[in-house]
């Protein structure tokens, strides 16, 4: 096949993913960069494969940041996520699930960097795409509402956060039922929010609901 071939690039990517999961982040970045260089020679500047590789590069940079300068790493990851978004919009159009995923990646990095307004804008773009493609009652839409709630909570907009968490909970109960780990997660988020606004009785009620669900599904011995 030779060194400059899509399958060779894919093998470098697979190796990089394994290296990242094993904690060898520097070597993973080298493998993913090799994959990217081959893909750019084969496909040119724009292809869905290149966007996937840039997303993996971003994720790996974030993981490496846990061992060092987290803010610096998030800036590097954000650069990769934004490049992936440009490629995906050009190749796939603006209304595509992969484009929504890129906006979520961007939102997470912006949130870590303290750019909450930028994060909200990115998450809302993602939510809009997901709702248009999947409808309002979908598990991925619930995640998008939950992410919005997290940013609003971090900003101190407790009312806005409660609205987003409540929407996520309603969707999860509709999609998964009342006894599901995702539903429990929504109760936990609401409980944490209620603790911050000093509504301790209702916060305890929410946390106990989450605990009952987890005990039922995972067992009381689960960590």
Automatic annotation (TrEMBL):
Q: Looking at the keywords, is Hydrolase present?
A: no
- Keywords, in A-Z order: Repeat, TPR repeat
Query: What are the start and end residues of each TPR repeat?
Result: 9-42, 100-133, 142-175, 184-217
Matching Gene3D superfamilies: Tetratricopeptide repeat domain
InterPro entries given in the database record: TPR-like_helical_dom_sf (IPR011990), TPR_rpt (IPR019734)
Q: Does the keyword Signal apply?
A: no
Q: Which domain of life is it from?
A: Eukaryota
Positions of transmembrane segments: none
What name goes with this protein?
Answer: TPR-like protein
Task: Recite the lineage of the species.
Answer: Eukaryota, Sar, Stramenopiles, Ochrophyta, Bacillariophyta
């Amino acid at each position: 096949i030779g060194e400059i071939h899509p399958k060779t690039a894919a093998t470098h990517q697979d190796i990089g993913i394994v290296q990242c999961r094993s904690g060898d982040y520097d070597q993973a970045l080298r493998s993913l960069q090799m994959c990217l260089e081959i893909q750019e020679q084969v496909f040119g500047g724009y292809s869905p494969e290149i966007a996937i590789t840039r997303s993996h590069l971003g994720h790996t940079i974030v993981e490496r940041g846990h061992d060092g300068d987290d803010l610096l790493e998030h800036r590097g990851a954000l650069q990769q996520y934004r490049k992936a978004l440009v490629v995906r919009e050009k190749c796939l159009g603006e209304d595509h699930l992969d484009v929504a995923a890129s906006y979520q990646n961007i939102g997470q990095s912006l949130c870590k960097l303290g750019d909450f307004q930028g994060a909200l804008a990115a998450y809302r773009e993602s939510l809009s795409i997901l709702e248009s493609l999947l409808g309002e009652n979908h598990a991925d839409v619930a995640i998008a509402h939950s992410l919005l709630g997290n940013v609003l909570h971090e900003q101190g907009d407790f009312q806005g956060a409660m609205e987003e968490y409540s929407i996520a909970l309603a969707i999860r109960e509709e999609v998964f039922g009342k006894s599901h780990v995702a539903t429990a997660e929504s109760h936990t988020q609401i409980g944490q929010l209620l603790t911050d606004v000093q509504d301790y009785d209702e916060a305890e009620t929410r946390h106990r609901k989450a605990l009952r669900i987890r005990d039922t599904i995972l067992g009381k011995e689960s960590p």
